[in-house]
Amino acid sequence: MKRKICEVVAEVARNLIDDDGNNQWPEILQLLFQCANAPNVQLQESALRIFASVPGIFGNQQNTYLQIIKEMLMKYLDPSSNREVRFQAVRAVVAFILQHDKEVEIQKYFSDLLPHVIMITADSIKEEEDQTLIKLLIDMAETVPKFLRPQLEAIFEMCINVFNSEDIEDTWRHLALEVMVSLAENAAPMVRKKAEKYIAALVPLVLKMMTNLEDESDWAVSDEIDEEDSGENNVIAESALDRLACGLGGKAILPHIISNIPNMLNNPDWKYRHAALMAISAAGEGCHKQMEAMLDNVMQGVLKYLMDPHPRVRYAACNAIGQMATDFAPTFEKKYHEQVIPGLLTLLDDVANPRVQAHAGAALVNFSEDCPKAILTRYLDGIMTKLEAILTTKFNELVEKGTKLVLEQVVTTIASVADTTEKEFVVYYDRLMPCLKYMIKNANTEELKMLRGKTIECVSLIGLAVGAEKFMSDASEVMDMLLKTHTEGNLPDDDPQTTYLISAWARICKILGKQFEQYLPLVMGPVMKTAAMKPEVAVLDNDEIQDVEGDPDWQFVNLSDQQNFGIRTAGLEDKAAACEMLVCYARELKDGFANYAEEVVRLMVPLFKFYFHDGVRRAAAESLPFLLICAKIKGQQYLE
User: Fold this and answer.
1) Backbone angles phi, psi at 260, to 5 degrees
2) Calpha distance 218→547 (Å, rounded)
C-alpha cells in the first residue's frame, strides 16, 4: 500500500510540472524535505521512492536545490543508514543521473556518490535477494557509461568475481556479465584503456560458460526444434562473446580467444570442442579484419571437425562454416569452395543425425547466397543430385513417419542454390516442380505450415531464377494455390505462411510483369491488411510484467522504477514484408498500379514515424518516388 501511495503521489507531481519546468504543486517539495529529514525510516524511504520516480520534481528550481539534493542522497547512502533506505537512495541517485544523461556538469557534481552506489550494489549482490540495483548498474552502463569511469575497475572487479563464482545463482552471474558487456559496447575506448586486465580474465570465463551444455541423448534425432532458451548459460555466453568482439574490436578480443581455442579443440570432452567452434562463429563479425588475415589457419582447424565423432561437434563445425561464409563473403567462397562444398555434401548423408544433416543444408544456404555464380555452377550437378535424392527420401519419410525437419531445410537449400545459379538451374526445373507443387497443395495441416511456407518460397525463387518463359506454364496454377491459401485459410496474424505468401506474390509479379495486374484485386486486400497492422502495446508494472516477461513475442523497455512499456513484436516482420511488396508492385507495374497509388500513399506516409521497425520506415520512404510515377499517369491535375 505504501508503495502504491508513493506511485500515485509521484504521478500527480509529474503531471503538475509544466513544459517550462514550473511546479504547480510546490507543497510537494516541502513534503519531500519533511519526509527526508524525519527520523521515521518509512518516511525517509517514501521520500526517496518519490524522488526516484520523479527525479525532475524540482523543475526549473533544481539548480537552487542541487546542494541540498546531494547532501540528502549522501546522508542516506551512508553505511549507518537503514538497509532499505540505502537501497532506495541508490535508486534515487541512478534515476537522477539518468534524468541528466546529457548534462556532464551535473554528473561531475554527483560523482563522489558513485563509490557508495557501487558498495551498496555489491552488498545487494551478496544477499542475492533483490536484483534491482545491479539492473540499475546495467542501465547506467548503457546510458551514462562515462559517469562510471572513476569506479570502472571496482565495477569490473565486483562483476568478475560474481561471474566467476559458480556457487552464485546463474541469473546473478548473467547480470554481472551484462554489466561488463554493456560497458564494452557503450564505452569501448574507456574499457580498452582502463579494464584491459579484466577483459583478459573475462574471455576465458565466457568460453568456459559456453561449455555449459546439457547432454541430451535424443538431441541429434529430434524433429521438433525448440528455439534455444535465451536464458541458458551457453547461449548467454555466446551472445556475450559476440557483443564483446563487436564492441571492443578484434585487436582487444581475438588474442584472448585464439590463445584458448587450440586446447579446447583438442579436449576429449565434446562440450569444449563444441564451445571452441561456436566461439569462432561468434567472433567473426567483431574480429573481421584480424580473422580474415588468419582464415587459412582457422579453416584448417575447423574443417576436420566436420568429421568429429560427436554429432553436436559436427553441428558446431557446420555452424562455424556457415557463419564465416556470411562474415567473410565473397573471399571465403572463392578461397575454400573446394573444401567446403564436398565437406557439407558429405554431412548431408548423415541420415542417423537429422539435426546435423539439416544444419549442413543451412550452412550450404549461407555459402550459396554469396558464392559467385561461376563457382557454384561448377558443383551444381553434384549438389542437386544430393538434394534431389534427399528431397525424395525425406518426402517419403514425411508421409510414413511425419518427420519434416530435414525436408524443410532441403527445400530452403534448393531455393538458395536456384537463386544463385539462375538460368543454369533450368535443367532441374521439370524434375522438381511437380513434387514442390504437390507439397504446396497437400501440406495443409497445422504442423506443416512452415514446410508449406518454405515450399512456396522455393517455388517462387525457382521461377525467378529460370525466368518467365519456363515458369509461365506453372504460374497460373501456382498463383491459384497461393490465393486459395489466403482466401480459404483464414490465416491468423502470426501465421508463418503470411510472410512467404506476400514475398512470393512479389517475386511472381517480377516474373510476370504486366500480366500480374490481373491478380492485383485479389492480392492487394491481404497485403494492405498486413501492411496496416497495428502492433499491440501495453504499459505494465513490475508485478504484471513477470507473467509475460519470458514470452518471445513481447519486448519490454523500462520506463521508470515500476513501469515498463511493452510491444508485441509478432507480426512486425510480416508488416515490413508487406510494405516492401507494395514498393515492388509500384516499381514493377507502374501505370497498372495507378488505381491503388492514393490508398497506398495514405498508408505509407504515417509509417515514416513507425519507430518500432526500421524496415517499415525504410519501405515507406522508398515507396513514394514509385507511387508518384504511378500517380503521374493519371495526369498533373490528379497529382495536385
Assistant:
1) -100, -25
2) 31
Beta bridge partners of 564: 540, 558
**CA 324 → CA 132, 243, 319, 320, 372, distances in Å?**
39, 17, 9, 6, 16
C-alpha pair distances (Å), 373 with each of 330, 333, 376, 465: 11, 11, 5, 12
User: Per-10-residue mean pLDDT for the chain, 640 residues long?
Assistant: 78 81 81 85 88 86 88 91 92 94 94 96 91 95 96 97 94 97 97 96 97 89 72 92 97 96 96 97 95 94 95 97 96 96 96 96 96 96 96 92 94 97 96 94 88 95 94 91 75 77 90 90 88 83 63 67 69 88 90 90 92 91 90 67
The whole-angstrom separation of Cα 340 and Cα 360 is 10
H or E, element range at 225: none
Grouping H, G, I as helix, E, B as strand and the rest as coil, residue 556 is strand
Report whether the peptide linkage leading into residue 330 is cis, meaning its omega lies within 30 degrees of zero: yes
Joined grid coordinates for residue 154: 571496482
C-alpha cell read off for 315: 553441428
Is pTM beyond 0.90 here?
Answer: no
Tell me how far apart the alpha carbons of residues 615 and 492 are, in angstroms, rounded to a whole number. Answer: 22
C-alpha cell at 291: 580473422
Residues 6 or more apart whose CB falls under 8 angstroms from that of 388 comprise 428, 431, 432
* Cβ–Cβ under 8 Å, residues 389 and 382: no
DSSP assigned state of 56: T
Q: How far, in Å, CA of 584 to CA of 599, rounded?
A: 16
Helix (H) or strand (E) holding 554: strand 554-558
CA–CA separation, 189 vs 23, rounded Å? 41
DSSP labels for 366-408?
Answer: HHHHHS-HHHHHHTHHHHHHHHHHHHHHHHHHHHHH---HHHH
| CB 59 within 8 Å of CB 47 | no
The answer to whether 441 and 455 have CB atoms below 8 angstroms apart is: no
Helix (H, G, I), strand (E, B) or coil at 101: coil
Query: How far apart, in whole angstroms, are the C-alpha atoms of residue 347 and residue 362?
Result: 11
Report the residue count for the chain: 640
Residue 377 CB neighbours (<10 A) = 17
Query: How wide is the angle at C-alpha 88 spanned by C-alphas 83 and 89, nearest 5°?
Result: 95
* Spatial separation of the C-alpha atoms in residues 412 and 428, rounded to whole Å: 15
589 Cβ contact partners less than 8 Å away, ≥ 6 residues apart: 509, 513, 514, 516, 517, 520, 630
Give SS3 for 563: strand
Strand 554-558 and strand 537-541: pairing? unpaired
